[in-house]
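Marked as duplicate of an earlier ticket. Keeping the data here for the record.
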Amino acid sequence: MNNESQVKTAASPANKNTAVKPGNDTGSLRSFFIDGLKDMFWAEKAIIPGLQKLQKLSTCEQLSDAFETHEQQTQKHIARLEKVFQMLGEKAEAKKCKAMEGILKEVDEMVEATPEYSATRDAIAIIAAQKVEHYEIASYGGLVALGHTLGLSQVANMLQKTLDEEEQTDLNLTDIAESHINFEAEQETEPETAAAS
């Protein structure tokens, strides 16, 4: 508890001069935390064009709406990260997230490998989007934990809001897939299976 209050005091605006400056704490937990925020700042920005593309490709209105809602949420996540950087006395900088870059490339490949205007494409789009969500959930979960460890409770609470929204999006996509899209996609492959046998 004592340690927590000391970290808060050092990072508070009133003691900005005593706060650890970028570049002076390489290898520290706080440095890793800031790097993680920069990764997610890049990742959130990179996700937006993908969500816009998935909206256009979706044949199911419910799915298209879900992607649109998450695009709007992602804009809020970016703004929230900007606020977090401000609270930490750090410049809001994006650092290329190689993991997200790879996932987004795979998302494109997965979707392009499916027939246009099909439930199969919708089903694969959901799986692809959930790969993105799961990476975000893991990343934000770790950042929330580190925020609490560093005594940055307000920052951790802000990141928790984003984590909660990412988890809800994942659940919503699962509900859409299981309510009808996966079944419709399975039916699309039935004639080919029958013809092959």
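See parent ticket for discussion. The chain has six helices and no strands.
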